[in-house]
Amino acid sequence: MSRDSYLATPSGLRLTAGPLRGIVTPYIETLRVGRYAARTVQIYLDCLARFGDWMAVEGIAASCIDRPLIERFLDRLVSPPSGSAHRSAVANAQAALRHMLLLLPRTGTTATADPLTAELAGFDAYLADVCGLAEATRGERSRHVGAFLGQVFGAHAPVTAQISARHVEAFIVGLSARWRPSALRVVCGSLRSYFRYRALLGESTAALSAALPRIADWRDANLPKVLSDHELDAFLQAFDRSDPVGRRDYAIARCLIDLGLRGHEVTYLTLESVDWRAATLAIRNPKSRRVQRLPLAASTGEAIAHYLRQGRPQTVNRALFVRHRAPFDTPLGVPAIRNAMNRAFVRCGLRDRFCNTHVLRRTVATRLQCAGASIKEIADLLRHQSLDTARSYVRVDIETLRAVALPWPGSLS
Description:
Elements: H1 3-7, H2 10-16, H3 24-33, H4 38-58, H5 67-78, H6 84-107, H7 115-129, H8 135-153, H9 165-176, H10 181-200, H11 206-211, H12 229-236, H13 244-259, H14 263-268, E1 274-275, E2 280-285, E3 290-295, H15 298-310, H16 334-347, H17 358-370, H18 375-382, H19 387-391, H20 398-404
Antiparallel strand pairs: 1-2, 2-3
Helix pairs in contact: 2-4, 4-6, 5-6, 7-8, 8-10, 13-15, 13-17
């Protein structure tokens, strides 16, 4: 369908007459450039029209659109739930508004930054330029800090000198009622990072950092979950290598299993990352801003070559793994990689025990440990900056541990 055809639909007419009239045309063009199906574009326009109708009733101007406003609208859709059809409508609205939010900076309809937004922008710049953190990590830390500052100051400008240890304690205690200890540790890390940022600006934050509690860490109480040889074979057999998407997902799985790559590292791979003559794979890590080269295993290289020859769609994008559905000509993202691996776990009957991509990375480390590799060799392959991170896999080699274990006091042996 043409742009004018979309604008002539009931949703298009409502949008052109409402507060989103300045964004509807570039919104349609963006979806068409991404080669979204006509039905999908129409669904997104229906969701956008519903959002515009709500803005008109509430008297909200387009210049006030931001993430909190979108969350307010989505909260109205989520409650109360009414079955799978309702969940599908919510998911469509989330996707439609996510496209709109990405378009807002280009159309100049964003509102003037409030004091809290300006403070978080400075913190984000510190995380990017000084700490060299990835966008996803920066976003997570900014959300935690934004929630804390919002609770302490509300709509007023944040002033570090007015933050007390009681504010820190009240915020963490409030989260502890519904958050797991592992999540609380992440929040404490985000606040500690923010206090370091303010300290670099000349403010005294040592007392605030000291007020952050030390959350008990029971991760070492249990052995890491890893796939056995039988389970690993079943997992690899779960990919349909006669299908282009199956070839792509199998090649990704080989990168995760053979080289221990993280999910986000797979998204950084480009066609230039593979050196076929030297049999190496270049990993570009935005966090450390370095390029690391890993030996390309034969199984990994064969899977990638098979995908490039018979699975990868025609595209101008140089990313190694690209999307096979709209939006086209874009790299495959981390959520898509995670979902592809989870679907494989479902197909091989392991979904009740395993999920996500990190279990594959732990499996690589465990297999290396059981094969006699040193902790330093494991850390080098997995690109761990600290040996302590790789040392946890020593606990998995039970047979070797039995050989060095001391007899229990009072036992016969």
